[in-house]
Design goal:
By secondary structure, the chain is mainly β. The protein has 2 domains: 65 residues, no CATH class; 160 residues, Sandwich (Jelly Rolls), CATH 2.60.120. Helices cover 1% and strands 38% of the residues. The chain has an 8-stranded antiparallel sheet with strand order 9-20-11-16-17-18-13-14, with no helix packed on it. The chain has a 4-stranded mixed sheet with strand order 5-6-7-8. Strand 7 and strand 8 form a beta hairpin. It is rod-shaped.
Amino acid sequence: MSISSLTANPPNPRSNYYMNSLQVQSDLIANPITQSAVNILPLENGTFVYNETTNQFEGVVSGTFTPFAMGVSPTGPIGPTGPTGNAGATGSTGPTGQTGPTGNTGSTGPTGNTGNTGLAGPTGNTGPSGTTGNTGPNGSTGPINTSGQQLISSHILGATAATITFSAIPQTYNNLRLVIQTYSDVAGINANSVSAQYNGDTGANYYFNEIYATTSSSVGSAYSGAGQASARYGNVNQSENNPIIAAMTVDIPNYTGTIFTKASLGSSFCALYWLYCGAVWTGTAAITSITLLLDSGNFAVGSSFYLYGY
């Protein structure tokens, strides 16, 4: 609605209205219209309406309807920003803020110098005795005793053993003698034979002949073997004859010789037999080791074996 279509009531000097620089000193009565009707009006600067939907006067300013209060000119467009004013005086210092979190731990400093050695403490109590060490090796063989035999080496069994070996036999005697007390751990009441191998020779290079008598007969018997793997010495009891144990002695003359074969002479007694046996090894080398073995089973615990030179 333009200013020319407004109806003026009798002048009212207390009311001043400005529209398009025209001062109207009178009451203005504008017919109210809805927002829908406002929306279809042409946007001509100076158009003035009363919008009954928003319950306010509105006028077109710069091509758009703008609400305004009666008696107050509508707000014009925003002018340009003025220059920045001088900075105000610094305000007073504010209160101290809260303490911040603790910073990370710094790196470890260098190690200090070693301090002086402290005084020696009192001597502690004597500790328990250690376990007994293993038996040391046999000492070197002493000079030949021309008046009798000397012990070269011995074995006393703390556990059963399949073989007994005398090694590094010194070559300073004329003859060797074995003294044996043993029995077999084979379960039974019969006997097992004891034989020997020289210098590790396990070939069929041994022969023997024996004669024996049993405890149940006064008639003796003979037995022989050729091409054997060991030199037969005699017989010993089996375990069910325990505590009856066999005794045996064997002599090997000229064991250091290198011209003839080696012969042995042995005698033994056990619960069943008295036996006398001669055996030959076909080797001619000096005897440096003797290995004792049974034809079955093991030598029992407590068995003793002594090797003498004379």
